[in-house]
Structure formats: C-alpha cells, structure tokens
Amino acid sequence: MKKISDFIWPIVGLAAVIVSGYLLYRELAGISVAEIKSSFSEIPVHRFLLAGLATLVAYAALAWYDRIALLHLGVRHISWFFVSVCSFTTYALSHNIGASVFSGAVVRYRAYTAKGLSAAQVAVLVALCSFTFGLGTILLGGFVLVALPDTLTRLNGYLPSVLTDPATARILGAGLLGFVALYVVGSLMRLKPLTIRAFKLEYPRPQIMVRQIVAAPLELLGAAGIIYFALPEAGNPGFLVVLAVFLASFSAALVSNAPGGLGVFELVFVVAMPDVARPSIIAALLVFRLFYFWLPFLISVVVVLLYERNRLASAIKGDPAEAAPGAPLTAPGLDPKAIDARVRKHPV
After folding, report:
1. Is residue 243 pLDDT above 90, yes or no?
2. 3-state SS class at 191
3. Residue 107: predicted pLDDT
4. Is the pLDDT of residue 176 over 70?
5. Strand 194-196 to strand 199-201: parallel, antiparallel, or no bridges (unpaired)?
6. How far apart are CA 2 and CA 324, in angstroms?
7. Burial letters 135-167, b for 16+ CB under 10 A, else e
8. What is the percent of the chain where pLDDT is above 70?
9. Exposed, middle or buried by CB within 10 Å (0-12, 13-18, 19+), for 280?
C-alpha cells in the first residue's frame, strides 16, 4: 500500500491553489482584463529585454549549482554544455510540476547516469543543489530582514503578528545570517559534521563553499529582477523591496506545495505591493510566469524528447555509458551509508 503522505501532499497542494485562488480573486475584484492588457502593453521593449537577461542570469546560476555539486563529487569529465542543458531542463520541469527535489531527481538520474554517475552520486548531487538553493534563500532572506525589517508588515493579517513585528524580523534575519556564518566558518576550519537529530550538515571544502556563497543568491536575484524590470516606475518601491517581497512569495509558494506555486505566489506578491497599481502587478507577474516558467517549460519538453530519442538510438547501437570516477558521498542532510543501503534495497 502507498504511504498516506503520497496522497496528503498532492491534496495540500490542490487545496492551497483553490484557497489562494479565491483570496486572489477577492483582491483583484473590479480589475478588468482590458486593464491588465493595457498595463502589459505599456511595458517598454528594453524592459522586456532586461527581464530576459535576468532570466538568463537565473538559469545560468542554476546550472552553476549542478557544476558545483559535480566538483564536490570529483566529477570533471562532463561538459559545461551538458550540465547547463540538464540543469535547465530539470528546473524548467520542476518549477512547473512542483516537488522540485523529486522531479529534479528523476530528470538528473536519467541524464547523469548516462554519463557514468551512480544513483548514490546523483542523490548527493540533488541534495547539494537543493542545499545551495536553500543557502541562497537564507542568505538573502537574512540580509533583507536585517536591512528592511519593516518589509513583513506589508503582510499584516496574513502572517502571525510575531513575524510582522520589525524587532522580531531583525532578530530572525540575524539568526539566518548566523547560520550562513556557521556554515562558512565550519568549512574554513574543517569542523566535524553538525548533527541535529536526523539532519547531518557536512561542511564541504572551502573551494566548494565559496562557489556556493557566490552562486546561491544569483538565481534569486535574477528571478526577482524579472519582476522588477516588468514593474512600472510609478510606485515602484525599488529592487531591494521587490527582492524581499519576492523571497516571501517564493517561500510561501514552496511551503504550500502548490504546483509551480500557482496562486499562492501571486497572492502574497499582490498583497505585499500596495503602492503599485494592481493591473501593473498582474502584468509583471505574467511576464515572470512567461519568462521563468512557461517558455523554459516548452523548451525543456523538446529537449527531453530529443534526449530520450538519442538515448534509445544509443541503446540500440549498444554504446556503453561513460564511467565516472569514485566520489565523496557527502552532502548536507545525507548519510552516505544510508544512501548506499537504500539504493541497494530499492534500485532506481
């Protein structure tokens, strides 16, 4: 029998979409489609180009996540082009489907095992990429909460009052930055792994840690830049506020488990931007969905079909898979022995 959680999380995601859709409908009541179209058409061409550039920065940073994980594993024989295409396809699909860790693992497993990686190595790669993304969220989240502690007051009535209090927000931000500092110091000083119940934090080599600290925020900065460039100048609160609201919206979308954060992301963003005209916000969010979700998804489907066709042709010809070197099976939150045992018991 399947686990109850296999049914609960899809139900939670569907409920989040329905509830947030209803609340969003209430927030946008009275706005016509014509107003949204007008706001969309008023976005200057150069702003669209800047939004496209921000999209490239975001997906380039995601490809760097994969490259960093491969360097941690000691794998250097896979080309940047292959890594970039694999990463782009993985995130384009998982952003739209949801449950990015699991859907991303399936795509990466298909791609990287063809290059000689084992299932355990792919598991470490997925975990390290997820941790790098989380590290960027924690780093930027801590920074904006310390620099702009009043940001969460925009969500009064939607968040507990303890979180919207500026003093609490600043303390929370300092705590998040403290976690990043602990990670940096632990890596530089080669400290022993930090174990908190089932969670095990393995400190990587300093060369890997430095790359993570640089790459981790880039994807979020690029993604937030898409919306920032699509917003009008009138009422625009500035990039730092847009970034803070984006982080809150994106985090809420991830927690909701809604596919692609649909509805949840838009609701939080609309509520947290009262100074900008609602039609303009919706137009900017449509640009974000178009550039960050929909166009990459369409491209990724074509890439997957072409890749699977080539894999089938190679299998018919009997071409062997490339062999990968041995690798250190360590990553934040993963026990290498448990990975090997689980893979042997339940082959992928």
Report:
1. yes
2. coil
3. 80
4. yes
5. antiparallel
6. 34
7. bbbbbbbbbbbbebbebbebbeebeeeeebbee
8. 79
9. buried
